């Protein structure tokens, strides 16, 4: 038949009858290579910088062998076994390891705040003032019945502002304060156990179970206070880390056990295998006398201030500065961002004069997300320092500037999360007679919360690495003690790293700076990982 | 007995309820309107000092002057800084645009669901790495590596900074372009296959042209990000204004000039201090215009297919 070599049909797809698969394969491979290009390059650089920060070659090979045998082999074998069972046990195992890990990270942050920044006295006064304010609101509600939201807000603010200083004064007249550990126990420990108890009671629909959980947790946290402080676990360390790491883990374990009625969830034992591997490894290494790597990134680096000498330089004050700044960033951007997203998605009219304003606001937000961070820095400098007369380079100014920077990102991601809530849920709620606000608070917000949290954590991860705005508002190049309040001058981790860029010596360039970069990137990747985990968990459910 | 008591009160305290609803609505509106206040504040604060600057230095001397030496010679010509910015932006675009589009094509047309679920978070992390870290990589690892390859680089140079900026904005190009490609209706692809086209021909001949406006808008956004990028250039490209930049030498871009002005000790009310705001408002105007253009282009493609 016609071979098609000289056919008059001209150009059309497949006119050569034999189509080579090669161009397609080459194209697909090129595209894949392009996708991996950036990822591989940055991953390689991260490996390199980690190598410089840890210096694994300085360690005794025996050291690696011991940890390989006690930690890597058992845990990977166990994970592989769980993975082969294909019943979700691997997920349980990894989550059971991940929750205490993130909890410890968060708990250490809070702990640092309480050791260095917030005095026990201020904390007690703050808790007392909050309790008084809540009491006033409840009392007000009882007297006046259910009133408008604004009225309650007003009463709350008046109670907090009016009674806060009075409470502070009142507490300062006490001849003796209770011991610090008692205060931590009854604020963090009691509060955490109470919240856990309430959650358990609600999940199981069983008050007694909640009470049991509460009692068990509270007794454990109280018992831990009596651990010998010479082990390093002092009562504040114990109470705060328990509250942030152990209580969420216990809640997760409770959930798994409840869902698996009957069969034992072995995955929950995975973290014990890991921790035991670490402990056994540490003991063995100590007994056999194998030296570990002489890392730049060590406890000394994390706990000391900057120095002219690379061996003594550390990042501690900048770490505290970053944590404090993130507190301000979260407070200043999260509520406003979610509020704005709620208005734009739930209230904004689609016609009428206000709709023009709304359209304008939406375009404006999209554009704000693209404004360079250095311009936000200038805004912070001009607005907060020059006009509002704050001191330059203090925590509040840095936090609010970076907060403004991530506000549009939070609004946009929260809008996406709220938009993804199906309209049928809202209609059902309206059908039950709920008002718009009741629908939002009871239906829309709980449903959209995972999405909102994911977007916000990603935004906070970006905020913690922002450098240019901090340069513009005059954050300190190096501070030698941690800031002791929100109105103190501070430095942050990225700012400290930029200071080290100016140090020409090899030890700084490839040692101290590498350690700083690894610290910063670890914090940022942990936050991203937490966000991605939250998203994956809730995506699968729906 | 009065009549009213017999009618059940279904509405409840409707007055209080609606007052509460209204107050919440306006509170949330306030949150949304704050973004406009931020924009206004940016423009106002920048303009305030920039106008003072332009009273001292004529706009002609600023926008067309070819020497930037604010502290020593009191010369405020912004042209070398703009030249440096454009140079770095074009170089980084040479990396980010081809790589980003190829990666978007892979993710949208070739990747399986599972591959995508691994690669997309990795790209997200790439986008989230602090820029000062990218700058550190460029200065401490990339520059020596390129020197080892035989390029005559000085310690601070435009090339390694541009490569790093290019890598930083790849995720932006690829994720926005992928959104645009995924929005192309499947019927177009099916039609292509029906005509006997291969997957390669469908990808390059049907999907990419159909998503062109979305892809183009991602280019604009990414370039605007490259223009406003600060820390990478500050750390790795140096602070030496040049009218004719070279990839192997140091140069100074607009953002770096602002950082240099604020970190050297200049007096609060001096002309050099105000020059910072003049650069700031120029930068703001450029990026804002680019973002608006990107929104405009992107909204056109949305009209075509939805």
3D architecture notes:
The complex is a heterodimer of chains A (542) and B (306). By secondary structure, chain A is mainly alpha-helical. Chain A folds into 2 domains: 60-293, no CATH class; 316-541, MetI-like fold. Chain A is 75% helix and 0% strand. Chain A is built from 19 helices and no strands. Chain A has helices at residues 22-54, 61-85, 89-117, 120-144, 149-172, 180-204, 207-224, 235-259, 270-288, 299-303, 316-347, 353-368, 373-387, 395-419, 423-431, 436-465, 468-472, 493-501, 506-541. In chain A, helix 7 (207-224) packs antiparallel against helix 8 (235-259), helix 11 runs antiparallel to helix 16 (436-465) and helix 11 (316-347) crosses helix 18. The model of chain A is unreliable at 1-5 (pLDDT under 50). Chain B has 306 residues and is mostly helical. Chain B folds into 2 domains: 10-56; 68-305, Orthogonal Bundle (MetI-like fold). Chain B has 12 helices and 2 strands. Chain B has helices at 14-56, 59-64, 79-110, 113-128, 131-148, 158-182, 186-194, 199-210, 212-228, 231-236, 254-263, 271-305; strands at 68-69, 75-76. Chain B has a two-stranded antiparallel sheet. In chain B, strand 1 (68-69) and strand 2 (75-76) form a beta hairpin. In chain B, helix 9 runs antiparallel to helix 12 (271-305) and helix 11 (254-263) packs antiparallel against helix 12 (271-305). Residues 1-5 and 7-12 of chain B have low confidence and may be disordered.
Explain the layout of strands and helices:
The complex is a heterodimer of chains A (542) and B (306).
Chain A: H1 22-54, H2 61-85, H3 89-117, H4 120-144, H5 149-172, H6 180-204, H7 207-224, H8 235-259, H9 270-288, H10 299-303, H11 316-347, H12 353-368, H13 373-387, H14 395-419, H15 423-431, H16 436-465, H17 468-472, H18 493-501, H19 506-541
Chain B: H1 14-56, H2 59-64, E1 68-69, E2 75-76, H3 79-110, H4 113-128, H5 131-148, H6 158-182, H7 186-194, H8 199-210, H9 212-228, H10 231-236, H11 254-263, H12 271-305
